[in-house]
Amino acid sequence: MIKKITLGLTVIFLLSFTLTNNFRELVQEKLSGYIDNYPEKVYVQTDKPYYTIGEDIWFNTYLVNGVNHKRTNKSKIVYVELINEKDSIVSKKQLYIFNTSAAGDFEIKKNWNPGNYMLRAYTNYMRNNEADYFFQKQIPIWDVTKTDSINDIIETIELTSPETQIELQEKPDIQFFPEGGYLIDGLASKVGIKIKDKLNRNITINGVIKDSDNKTISSFKTFQFGLGIVTLIPETNKTYYAAVTINGEEITYPLPKPLPNGYNLNIVNNGDHLVVKVATNNSLGLQNSYLLAHQRGALVFEKLETDANNSYIIKLNTNTLSDGVTHFTLFNSTGKPVCERLVYIDNPEDDAILSLTSDNETPTRRDHVNLNIDLKDKEGNALTGNLSMAITDIDAVGHSSKTENIKTYLLLNSDLRGQIENPGYFFEKENDPKRRYLLDLTMLTHGWRRFIWNELLYQNNEDSITFKPEIGLYISGRTTSKRKKGNISASTRITFMGGFPYQEKKRSDANGTFSYGPFVFMDTMPTILEARIKKFQKEETKNNRLVDIHLDKNYGPSPKVNRKSILKPNMDDQTKITNFIQQSKDIFKINEGFLEEARLLDEVVVTATLKSQKEKRNEELNEKAVYGYPSNRIDMQEYENMETFFILDLIGMLPGVNVVNDTISIRGAGTPSIYLNNIPVELTDISTMTGADVEFIDVLKGVDASYFPNSANGVIVIHQREGADFFAKNIKRKPGIIDFTSTGFYTAREFYAPDHMYGFEEASREDIRTTLHWEPKINLTSVDTSARVSFFTSDIRSNYAIKIEGITDSGIPVYHLSTFEVE
């Protein structure tokens, strides 16, 4: 009988061990798949935290692999949106990420309403998850001409102020977080305490823990951010509550009810090492339990317990771990997650050290300053990467080292639901035990992770990939028959006219759908799309062109707006906001006065030589002509009373061009191609055009015409007069062809940087900028390991903040904040 029992236990043990090993392999397989299909993260640095109507928002967007924070090999496109208080997108930029970043800007229109706007950034691939994964930041925008709007917005901003001891007047909202997840009878457990309501968060609250017999077990005290901790060993059949006394009245809060059986996961973070204790009160002990730790999905530690111990302790050195949130999870023998704990790792070996030196240590007003930037690791080796810099007036623009930055976002908030307030506080001082202790309490009271184990282990993640990564632009649509009014397979051809002419052909499928791309081009591109029922032929028949072309929209509808996880700006104090608004009012008055002076100056007649006027005019027209210089040109500005002349009469005036009846030829070439605004047209399409519609006409032949396809016989390009609408209203395209302007990726405008040394306009205009300088693209490469940034100071004697953010090629987030004074 004893042998049978022993044999039975052995079989159970072997079966359980096999199941646990299979589960261990499943976990590792799924984590490996998570890394292969890694999430993406986006961060946006803006030059300031708040703005006024009429200003520009300057920003730089960073896109990285969400696991190692290196360059992502998935998406190349980021959408950045500015959303008003009514959740309407007032401006949207589509940016192409060449490496890890792309610069952009928003022009705050004068007809916009003031309010708390939201800046949101994401990739199409990020839409497979909730909007909590998007980068979202609140941007207050004031109208300096409306006092009421200024006060309304200030009331909604969370102003940070020096810590003050305020007497507790009302019942605080307190939450309790047992370490690992649960209180277990007989097992010592830490319980995190968090004051939820903002009114009482920075007030020191003293209380006690009592059991169901009203016996005091221990006391507690909350610290900064409303955080505290207490330790207790729950007894069987007892419950516990916290008691806080307010104005002589005891207010009680129940703690989570202890479980009779379960597991406990206790971790002590000593900076250079972690002490991990696992315990249980189950009769089978920890046998076949599985403990693992991962950082953003990368496995960093695992332990499969084979003995039936009730507890064990592990010391884990952190010098091999990366900076960021580390997740510890304990699974029982059936593969169920029973305990979890977050720990933040701050490894000094991962730090990027940025040094900033100036050639002008004591700059004065309107002075020239050069800044030299070097970025190195702990060993003194140069680091490569991308950075952006904002220099702002501290008296008007509050910049606190406690607020969100790229380091705190990538390493903290982007891996947690809900915002950690003033996250920069935890990184202001290196190796500060107090800050490390408070950060550990923050981890103890944050119970959410980027993925849920049951979803990761038992769902097919590939099925949830609805939105694919985007690497370029696509021009797509469908072809339909003009006769049958249904989809039809047809030959299609796309032609880009901007830059270097490009042409491609393909046939739409049986459903009439076609797609060209991916393309990468900036701004806009004149585009022609053609379709034929059969093949494209030199001698076209009317029936072959009986095809309609229907284009798809550039991109689908934007995701639904969700403000739940929005990052609100934390300001130093209201005084700086008041200074900013007053300075913005002064800037508004200066700009209004300058525009009035410019208007008066325009009325002054300046006499110039005929030759210089003509040269300037030609330069103007050459800029409009994307193909460069023509072989010959007629400028309608030089001819009077020719508005009623028909286009053939005007073309006949071109040197080297002959017009006989309805036939055009170029001497030494042949019958030319005709283009209107760089779009090919038939002569019959423009036959009714007159001089009133034309600004200038160019003739190109030989090498000059090579910009255009099929240009062996030369090209005549007609440019419409600005404001003329002949092209839109009068040209009736033949069937099977449409022309349009393709929208490419947004190219950021250049930040206006006054030149106080040689600039004429700057010499006569007061300079009181709140953003002194914006440098969105600072590239550090293996060839250029340092960078140099130059700018001029303004007319304001003040202290200025230099904020530099970025990411190294090795995935280290970089944040630097320093100041200088203008005397």
Would you mind describing this structure in some detail?
Residues about 5-15, about 160-165, about 600-605 and about 605-610 have low confidence and may be disordered. It contains ten helices and 45 strands. The longest helix has about 35 residues, at about 1-35. A hairpin with a 2-residue loop joins strand 35 and strand 36 (about 665). Among the domains are: about 40-155, Macroglobulin (MG2) domain (Immunoglobulin-like, Sandwich), CATH 2.60.40; about 175-255, Immunoglobulins (Immunoglobulin-like, Sandwich); about 475-520 and about 525-550; about 610-735, Ferric Hydroxamate Uptake Protein, Chain A, domain 1 (Beta Complex), CATH 2.170.130. It has a five-stranded mixed sheet. Strands 34-39-40-37-38 form a five-stranded mixed sheet, with no helix packed on it. Strands 13-12-15-16 form a four-stranded antiparallel sheet, with no helix packed on it. It is an alpha+beta fold and about 800 residues long.
